[in-house]
Amino acid sequence: MAGRQVFICAAAEDAGYYGELITALNAWEVPHTEMGIVPNPVISMPPTIESEIRQCEVFLRVCTTHTRQSNAVKLATDFFQQALDKDRRGPNQRRRLINLILDPAYLLDDEEKKTLYIMAPGKSRPLWLEELSVSVGAATLTQQISRRALFGMGAGAAVAVASAGVAGTLLVKQFRSQQPPALPVQQSISGNPKFNFNLIPEPMKNSAFDPARVFQDGATIYAQPVLSYDSFDKLTDVVDDTVYVLTTTNGQKRPIKIPPLPDYQLNQSELIAATNGVLLFHNLSPDAIPLAPTQTTIVRAVRVSDGKQIWKVTTAAHSAPAIADGVLFMVLQDVTKVEGGSIYYETSLNAFSMNDGARLWRNTDYSFDTILTPAAANGRLYIGSYFDQDHNVYCLDTKTGKKIWTYLTGGAVLGTPTIANGVVYVGSQDNALYALDARTGALRWRFAGSLTFYAAPLVHDDVVYAPSQDGYIYALDASTGAMFWRAFAGVHAATDSVGSGTLTAQVAVYRNVLFAPTGNALYAFDLRHGAQRWQYSPVSDGDLTAPLISDGLVLVGAADNHVYAVNP
Questions:
Q1: Partner of 123 at 20 to 30 A CA spacing, among 262, 381, 480, 506?
Q2: 324's torsion region: left (phi>0), alpha (psi -120 to 50) or beta?
Q3: Pairing relation of β-strands 463-467 and 458-460?
Q4: Is domain 6-171 classified as CATH 3.30.565.10?
C-alpha cells in the first residue's frame, strides 16, 4: 500500500518528537522525506530541500511551540505555498498542506484555520491517525484505519499492513490486552470511603491546610497528623510525635511512640520517609526561624521495631529524601558563618548510609537547592538545577557523587525525575517533559505542554502518566512521547463544572483506573481513554497527599488530619 509523497516540515528543536508519525507512515508504506536540521541562521532553503518540496504532494507541517520561532520552517512553508499557488493556476491540483498539531499549546491563526489541519492534543491516537491516514492517501473515508488496532500501537508493537480485508488497516499488538477487566463505573463516592482513619487525639487541633503525612514501606502504611501553628515558630497545640501503622484490611490503626529529642520537645518530629522498617524524621528547633534557619535542624532515623534512634544529622535546611540500596540522598543547606547579623550558607548534595548515618560523599560543585528532590536507580543519581541559569539535568555516580553527564533544558528543572526501563523522565519550566537515555543523557523525545511538569511522572505498562500544572494528566507513549490522551483534573463528573486544575503531586494506578489529587479533590480516570470516572472531596479546604494503593484501596491524607481509604 502507498499514498501520496509526503514532506515532513518541523523545527530543528522538534527532531525526534514526532516518532509516532514516522512509525505510521512507514507502516502504511507512504513515501516520505524530512526537512531535517537546517543550520541557523538560514536565508534560503538548501537546493536539496527545495527539490523535495517540489516533488511532494503533501506538505505535512508538525506544529509545536517551536514552529513559529523557526525561520527554516517559515522559508519551507513559503516555498511550498508558492508551488501551491502555481498548481491552482495549472492542471495539477493534487498538492495539499496539512498542519498536524501535536502540541496543546499551539494555537492556530486565522490563515492556518483555512488549511487542512489535524488536532492531536486531546484525542486518542486512533482518532488523529485515522484523519492522517486519509489525508496522506493511505486510506479513503470508507477504508478507515481500525481504531481498536491503532490504539494499541506502542513500544515493541508488531506493525504490519494487512494484505486482505479492508485496505489501509494497521495491525498492531495490543499492549493493553493483558489488562484485567475494567472496574465498574461509579457516579460519585463523595463522603463514602471504606475506612476513615482519624489521627487527631484530643486536645490537638486540625492543621489549617497541610494534609496528614502518609508513607508506604512495602505493604505497611505509616501516617502522622500535622499539628497547627499560629506563627512561624510557636506551636499552640500539645506536641505528639506518634506515628500510626494503618491496616487497610480492617480499618485499624496501631500507634508507634517516637522518642523525643532533648531541647526539641516543643516542636513535632515530622515524618518525611519510611523504608525497610526505618522512619526518617525532620526536627526543627523551637528557636529556629524558617526564613533564616540556623544549624539546628535535625534529620534522624528511628527503627520501627523498638523505637530506637539509630542516627541523626544536623543541618540548616534539607530537601525531600531519596533512598536507594541502603543510601539516603539529600540536598543540605549548611551554615558556614554568621557575621554582622548575616548568615552565610553552603548548599550540597549528600549521600548517607542508612545503617549508621555516616556521610559517604558530599558534592558542592553544582547549583543544587533544597527544593529539589533527587531520584536514584541502577547506581546513578538524577537531579535537576535552576540557580544561576543552570537549567541542567544532572546524572551522578551514587558511590562517589561524581558527574557522569548533564543535559541542558530550556528552563529551570524543578521536577523530580522518574527512571524506568533505562530512561529518565523529568519536567522543566520550559513547559516540556523530557525523556533522556539514563546511561548517556541523549534525548529520546520531548513533549511540549503549556505549563510545567513538576510532579514526578508515573510509568506503567510502557505509558508515561505526567501531571502538569496546566491541570491535565498526559498519557504518553513511553518510547516516542506520542500522546494517547489527556484528562483535565478539575471537571466535576456530575455537573461538568470546571474547578481548579493545578497538579503538583504524583498520580497512582490501580488496574484500569488512574488517580490524581488536585486541591482538596481526588480524581479517578479510566486508564484506557482518560474519561473521568468519579471525584472525591473529603474536606472543603486544604490539600490531599499523593495517593497510595494498599489492599485494593486508594489512600490519601487530608487537611483534617484524617487518612481516607477509598474504593477505586
A1: 506
A2: beta
A3: antiparallel
A4: no
